[in-house]
Amino acid sequence: MKTRDLLQRRLNRRKLLKTSARLAIGSTLAVSLAAPPIVRAAGGKVIIGAFVDGGLTPFKQKIIPLAKSEAGFDIEFLEDEYGVTLEKWFADAQNNAGQYDMYLLDDPWVPQFGAADVLEDLGAGGIDASDPDWIASLIAMGYWPPRQGPRVKGFESADSKLVALPFVGDLQTLTYRNDVYTDGPPATWDDLIAKGKEGVAAGKIKYPIVFRGVSGNPIVTSWYPIFLSFGGQFFDDKWNVAFNSDAGKKAADYFVGTLKQNAPPGVVEFDSDQEGAAILGGDAGAIIQYSGNALKADDPKQTKVAGKLDFGVVPKQEKAIAQIGIFIASVPKSAPNKANTIEFLKWYVSPATQAKLAEAGSIPVRRSAFAVPKPGNRLIPVALKQLDSGAEPRPRTPDWAKVEELLGIELNKALQAGSGGAEALDAAAGKVTSYLKDAGYYK
Amino acid sequence: MSARDRWLSRERLQGAGLDAALPYLLLAPSILVTLIVLVYPLWDGIRASTQFYRYGKALRDVGLENYARLWDDPQFLNSLWVTLRFVTASVAIETVLGLALALFCLHEFRGIKLLRTVLIVPMVITPVVVAIVFRLIYASDAGMLTAFSEALGGGPVQILGEPTRAFVGLVALDVWEWTPLMFLIMLAGLQSLPVEPFEAARVDGAGPWRVFIDHTLPMLRPVIAIAIVLRTIDAFGTFDQVFVLTRGGPGEATRLLSVLGYDTAFKFQQTGYAAALFLTMGLIILALALAAVRMLRRAGES
User: What is the complex's ipTM, to 2 decimals?
Assistant: First the structure.
């Protein structure tokens, strides 16, 4: 009997284990089979990822509702802070997570996404990029590898594909106080400083200029138009560093010396929020900036100097040339509502919708839209003037973020010291060359 | 052997096998989870650290090259130095302040319970929120320190734009947030000490300072060591505060290893190099922890 009991017990335990295993497997299967399949949004749904920026306000306020009422698109607009979007979206695209239908990229990120081959070919999707109504310099930014200029290793002979589409035009322009610069926008940097000092002496402003000094992207973005206007060139056509040329060094010395002396004392730590506060709060006489804060210039709720801010082409040393930095739309291969998104883009970039975008106050990406009788913002015609006067995108390399970081650190150190811009460029040139060499740019 | 005997024998053997396997079967789910969430990521990290990545893809195996490159990389060496200085300064100040506060709060007086509660509030606030608040205090254009200085007739106070001050500002933030943890551990340690040696010392006429040096400190040494080990490991991984407060600037003055690793992995997409960086960082922390444990053991033996 004892043996039988023992056997019985063992058998029961075995049965128990077997039953448990069967139950576990069975219930898992049952749950997975019974669970509804992942429902991909249907109809006109489009999930757009964007970073927070004032330049997108007209799109959010006017165009999203229009997309619903006029074309039946149901837009879900997901915003994040600028500093986290690149890594978040790249992970989404690379892992095929399918959380977004469209990313509104900052244009220097196009090469990174393009080289990783995670974006849809929008040309193959039926978007016509050959229409002469496109602003040539803007549509060129959507191609990977770039159609003009040097190409990085591995993409020398690859076919250029349209992987991103200009979405909201943006570029640096001058915003200035019309009660300080009474004769219109200052033509040169020296004029800007001289007149600004008069404004300070008259008690109208506290500082002639304000800019961003935080290391990395902010300081390089602020320095870039000065660098370009002094005649600087970033790389040659073989990716050799060229920014530490004489012109570049003069621009750097001018930036960390003269401009710092005429900017708020804490400019080394200034990012876009502080520079925006300085110009909109009435402390600064002038600023080179993108449209985000410029769009607030006439709103008394957002500025203490409404009516006193005007826009102009950036000052020149040799040329009046600015940096282009547009919002550019791309569709990840993992987009859950790809067809909707392509249709939305076709609708959105049509001359008719772009005209409405201009009327809403954003810089359009089609030349015809600049001709609307009543642009929603005084900045829009100035932006076209700047585009025609001269505007350049940043170099089209997937390593731009690292290059900007290395240069930004050195410029920031020189800005702290208030001198040594030329030496900072030499130091940065050495680091950038070493980095690009390791990355296989040179034979 | 009859058929029934053969059946019984087989069942007996199967039963015995089942008995032997049962512990492993019961452990299997937790082992599986450990493998998935701990061992696989670690193995994958080690594997990634031996690869050369471009554009988010592993292109070729480079062996230990990424590890070797670290020691020639001025950015890594700078961040290692900044991190070591940050950890040393923060943990040292937090230890001294935590012990002082614990000694003070050991006394029973009116309001002491409220004071003990208030003292631990900083460590329960989300680090990102603390960093935002400190940014609002330090900002040279509209920060509280500048407002205070200007109210007294001074000029803007610049903390985040000057390397040394930014570093001190970061340490101050960490001290404000994490001294309460040290205080809590020390207070628990002090409350667990036996009272007899202290009474005997007082009877022998020893003053408070003598009692502290000869009795409190030696008896509290293991607790202090544990607190230092825990805080050191935690401080090495500090990320949120510096990410929000300075992003590593000005220049590279506050660029801790965690921030450099984050940028390398996610902003510059050098996954292999970042993996080597983080694994090296992990080994440094492990070495420090082992050294501290050895120190603890010696303290226990003495």
Answer: 0.81
